[in-house]
Amino acid sequence: GISVGEGENLLLIAGPCQIESLEHCIFVAESLMGQLNGTGVNLVFKASFDKANRTSIGSRRGPGIDEGLAVLARVKEETGLPILTDIHHPEQACRAAEVADVIQIPAFLCRQTDLLVAAGKTGKAVHIKKGQFMHPEDMRYAAEKVASTGNEKVILCERGTTHGYRDLVVDMRGLVIMKETGYPVIFDATHSVQLLGGAGGSSGGVRKYSEPLAKAAVAVGVDGIFIECHENPSLAPSDGDIMFQLEGVGELVRQLLAIRRSLAR
Length: 265
Fold this sequence. Notes:
33% helix, globular, alpha/beta, two-stranded antiparallel sheet
């Protein structure tokens, strides 16, 4: 029942980086719902059952597909929120689609034809993150792979471009270029400030740049914002350096909506 794109309400994809427990997911989801009450923002809850692209072999990855999807099914049942989760193998697509309303393609895998086609065949919305190595114009080809299945429910996501070995930069022109494909565009305010592998076996980042980049992206005209959040980011099992403080998400969203209203006027 949620639409995203030109003329629609702002879409917010938010939740913890990876599933820690059912209780934690419900806590985060209910906090987000409370903070966004009355804003008109369309909220999609996200969490990963497997972080298969961690820097180090010893890093925590999540509970796996069986336990993870069971947790997300309970979150959906108890909160009524749509669910987004990512897949890494084509054979995971149908399993994830039993629970998820949106299937996410990780940035490193955005050119994987079999993965994109499998996601498209589920009929669910497919959220494709732009690879850190991709020109924004080339994201139309990733979208075409999904659309080749007859599924036009494609959403494109900007998450920064590699500059040197670890730094990511956000070129706001890329948001405009991806919008020209005709598909909705989301800005990932979390991973765009990541330092790839920059924390001694895990990825670091600089959280303070997320908020201004999110505001700039909304000013450019994106259709939604992607935010990973946690009540205590320093204790999160992954991406703690770049996750938003959970209790501050509502205030940020209100500022983003003010920018949107200003542009509309």
